[in-house]
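cron nightly-structures :: item 1 of 1
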Amino acid sequence: MNRGKRTEVRGERCEVRGNRLHTGIAITILSLFSLLAPLSTLLVTFASCGESEFEYSNHRAHFTYDNSIHLDATLAAAMNPMSPGIFCRISRSTTAYFDFENNQNMNSRVAVNAVEQQRICELGTYNASGIIVGYGTLDSPPTFFAYDAQCPNCYEESNMPRYQLSMASDGTASCRNCKRQYDMNNGGIITNGSQGNKLIRYRASTTGPMGVLSINN
């Protein structure tokens, strides 16, 4: 009789120890998850930041233009998110004027005012060839792009800004020298020709067709 009671007590003790062991393991697992969760969040954040940084060039570009003052229709068409696929090249071959040309055969020339004369104007690698801006057609809402108007591959090989891209109505940018074609609707990737770098891209934003264009890279 006493032996039976002892066996029963021992069984209860084993059961208690087993429960404590399971509880301890569960707590350890939960602790590990709580430690790893912030780490995984950091890794995702760093990865997304890295991908974002990779999208943009390290070339300098700085330009601010208030289209509420000038009301330029050529530029306005490219800053309208309701009309993606229209891209406008902005250039400055003289200190007195800005030139605008888009891929829908619109072009204009606007005099530089006194305030703009005092601003920094760095239109990418070469002011005379300029920067191309516009909304892409592939995303919803559409992505606003700003590209250098020089062929990235020919410019890299020569370090000379002699290779201005031409624009087509479908959003294709072409280089007459190397014959490469780039898709401005899709981050400037090469769609035809030899492998190489995609278009030089800059950080840019707009507040609307008759608003402010800001390029700061």
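cron nightly-structures :: done
Confidence is low (pLDDT under 50) at residues 12-18, 20-51.
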